Amino acid sequence: MPDIFGIPPQALFGQLLLGLINGAFYALLSLGLAVIFGLLNIINFTHGAQYMMGAFVAWMLLNWLGVGYWWALLIVPVTVGLTGILIERTMLHRLYKLDHLYGLLLTFGIALIIQGVFRNQFGSSGLPYGIPAQLRGGTDLGFMFMPNYRGWVVVVSLVVCLATWFVIEKTKLGSYLRAATENPALVQSFGINVPRMITLTYGFGVGLAAFTGVLAAPIYQVSPLMGADLIIIVFAVVVIGGMGSIMGSILTGFGLGIIEGLTKVFYPEASSTVIFVIMVIVLLIKPAGLFGRAR
Amino acid sequence: MKTLKSALLGAVALAAVAAAPAMAQTNVKIGVLSDMSSLYTDLAGAGSVLAARMAADDFGAAAKGIRVEFVSADHQNKADVGSNIARQWYDRDGVDMIVDVPNSGVALAVNGVTREKNKVFLVSGAATSALTGEQCSPNTVHWTYDTWALANGTGKAIVQTGGDTWFFLTADYAFGHQLEADTTNVVKAMGGRVLGGVRAPLNTNDFSSFLLQAQSSRAKIIGLANAGGDTVNSIKQAAEFGIVRRGQSLAGLLVFLTDVHGLGLETAQGLIMTEAFYWDQSDASRAFAKRFAAANKGIHPTMVHAGVYSSVTHYLKAIEATKSAADGKAVVEKMKATPTDDPLFGKGEIRKDGRKIHDMYLFEVKKPSESKGAWDYYKTRATIPAAQAFRPLNEGKCPLVGG
Predict the structure, then answer these.
(1) ipTM of the prediction
(2) Strand B97-100 and strand B26-34: pairing?
(3) Is B267 in the A-facing interface, judged by CB distances under 8 Å?
(4) Hey, are the CB atoms on B229 and A225 less than 8 Å from each other?
(5) What is the CA radius of gyration of chain B?
(6) Are A211 and A257 in contact (CB under 8 A)?
(7) Domain of A255, in residue numbers
(8) Is B117's Cβ below 8 Å from some Cβ in A?
(9) Among B201, B259, B297, whose Cβ lies nearest the Cβ of A271?
(10) Domain count of chain A?
(11) Among partner residues A19, A220, A268, which is closest to B198 by beta-carbon distance?
(12) pTM, two decimal places
């Protein structure tokens, strides 16, 4: 086969696949952000810290209680989600009527505190977390060696993303949620407990972040800074996709993963900035984001 | 009651202050400037402050008529923040000496400020060999290691054992470029070849794409010219993608003990690296490590911590002889004139260009089955004698040499 821009096609397929895998993380994280913003109007800057907490709680479960990866996938989102609910009940719910900026500042502050506490407790060089035995090794796809664990990550994140989209956009529960954001007073008058629904939604968004943290633990370093490194990119993804658009954030997450992957081949030095370049272009052409509606 | 108590305390304090000059005391203020909040916190950070304090205590500074005070600060890995703190310390707070400073960019900035103010700068954490090369200064001593020594130690050993084709995975900033250049020189001088390289932005999360490029280069050795979290992530992901199992080897050009701890032996085993110090080398180093770890949340000393301890000890010796910390250049001259000798680095010397000379070691990370417990990570592959471990004096282009 002829080379494409000087790169053998096999290598290019490999890079596309890798981009898709990274996109899976972007998609899952930006999905959580989009759900929280779409339904609560809160720009959740704590998201990165909650993702980090997910990875750490998985590590604690394994090393302190001997609970492995598979149970962690279930337990971690619930525990970290509960801390999210606590934050929402004690602090966030006072801010819904105020400007976005207040929620952003509060959650940013909380993120710094959480990161500081973990850094003080666990240091900065990170902790090891192994790949579960069932997913070790890899498959030779011909054009690349595909670690089984990465394949698992793509499949799981696709399933979770689509399920979330389905629940919010296509079910009755989802319609209540969406209605509650449009007009909480009206929905409340139908006998639906709107504040509780919103609290649970925030808990769910936080749980998604923690779930992503568990998925990430065997691949990346489990360190207090892992969320801070990622969250800025994820925010760019959300802005490109359109704040609050569920499907938008999923598609943009995967799409930008691929674009970033290609940048790593053709011009590696720019791979950490390419997403922001795209963000600038999108904002200039379509300020509400690719899939967003102007409010 | 309370006022009486504080009045009494005040009187005691006054008496102490009044009594002080009578003993002909020398006052020294040491500033530990480090990364206290980001990726180098564990390998330097609070541990460096601790090591400096331990050095002063063990030296018995107080009994020798030297009153040592400490300040510390976080340079946030930003050169402007670092040089601002240095200026403030020297101008306003009466700091005589700054020690540690991981991150080559910040260290080069502090190097300039220290020279301008005629104070003393002892480098332990930073890597760039420019500190004793074109940017060498009569006020600076580079203590623990540098990019040349790392490249020379690890590069040479690997080419000698047959790793003669290289691909570099380089952190895209001054330190990474310098390390890549130094290693390339060694590899070529030994008859090896560099097949290619890729420059990854600092703090990259996912290295798989770069690792695949390294894989398709078919080089025998993938040289990791990066540090901290970047190194940890690239090694972890190389294991995941079966890079090592498929016949290529990783060369971590700058790996610290705390990085290995973060990786776990399962992933890090077999990795070869060059360092100046390992805690389990002698009775003295083990005793030091035990005391150090007890006061540092169990984190064992890295070579950076050991370098801080050793350099502060030697500095205090020079202060004891000169009886004053005021003239930085004179203190450094005294340090260069005195042979170094301490429990962690043994005997050595400081060269004209400010380079501290001692043995370096080539370590290999143990297999999980070989490790006897927590922090038992390295076995020694080779000792690189002091005379060969560092860049020859005449090759560094340091203006202080040959004058």
Answers:
(1) 0.78
(2) parallel
(3) yes
(4) yes
(5) 22
(6) no
(7) 9-121+147-285
(8) no
(9) B201
(10) 1
(11) A268
(12) 0.82
Distance of CA A114 to the CA centre of its chain: 18
Min Cα–Cα distance to chain A from B174, Å: 14
Q: Which residues of B touch A22 (CB under 8 A)?
A: 205-206
Tell me how far apart the alpha carbons of residues A250 and A227 are, in angstroms, rounded to a whole number.
19
Which of chain B's residues have a Cβ under 8 Å away from the Cβ of A232?
A: none
Distance CA B307, CA B318 (A): 17
User: For residue A138, is it within any domain?
Assistant: no
Residue in B352, B379, B189 with CA at minimum distance from that of residue B270: B379
- What residues 177-216 of chain A have any CB closer than 8 A to a CB of chain B? none
Contacts of B266 in chain A (CB under 8 A): 128, 130
B245 touches chain A (CB under 8 A): no
A139 belongs to a structural domain? no
What does each of the 403 residues of chain B score in pLDDT, given as a tens digit?
A: 455 555 555 555 544 544 444 456 899 999 999 998 887 888 999 999 999 999 999 999 999 999 999 999 999 888 999 999 999 999 999 999 999 999 888 999 999 999 999 999 999 999 999 999 999 999 999 999 999 999 999 999 899 888 999 999 999 888 899 899 999 999 999 999 999 999 998 878 889 889 988 988 889 999 999 988 889 889 988 988 888 878 888 889 999 999 999 888 988 988 889 999 999 999 999 999 999 999 998 999 999 999 999 999 999 999 999 999 999 999 999 999 999 999 999 999 999 999 999 999 999 999 999 999 889 999 999 999 999 999 999 998 999 987 5
- Encoded tokens for B279: 């805690």
Contact A123 B299 (CB under 8 A): yes
Task: Tell whether A277 is covered by a domain.
Answer: yes
| Smallest Cα distance from A187 to chain B, Å | 43
Q: Which chain B residues contact residue A11 at CB under 8 A? A: 212-213, 216
Q: Would you call A268 and B200 a contact, using CB atoms and an 8 Å cutoff?
A: yes
For residue A18 the two structure tokens come to: 């890798």
Chain B touched by A223 (CB under 8 Å): yes
Backbone angles phi, psi at A45, to 5 degrees: -75, -10
Domain of A207, CATH number, reads 1.10.3470
- Residue A271 contacts B where some CB pair is shorter than 8 Å: yes
Measured between beta carbons, which residues in chain A are less than 8 angstroms from residue B256? 125
In a domain, A132, yes or no: no
Contacts of A19 in chain B (CB under 8 A): 209
Contacts 24+ apart (CB under 8 A), B340-348: B340/B310, B340/B314, B342/B309, B342/B310, B342/B313, B342/B314, B343/B282, B343/B284, B343/B285, B343/B287, B343/B288, B344/B277, B344/B284, B344/B285, B344/B288, B344/B306, B344/B309, B344/B310, B345/B276, B345/B277, B345/B306, B345/B307, B345/B310, B348/B386
Q: How many CA atoms lie within 13 A of B220 on its CB side?
A: 12
Domains of chain B, CATH where assigned: 25-145+281-358 (3.40.50.2300), 148-275+360-389 (3.40.50.2300)
Q: Which of A236, A278, A259, A210 lies closest to A18 in space, CA to CA? A: A259
Contacts of B264 in chain A (CB under 8 A): 128, 130
With a CB cutoff of 8 Å and minimum separation 6, the contacts of A18 are: A150, A261, B206, B208, B209, B212
B228 in contact with A, Cβ within 8 Å: yes
Contacts of B383 (CB under 8 A, 6+ apart): B359, B360, B361, B362
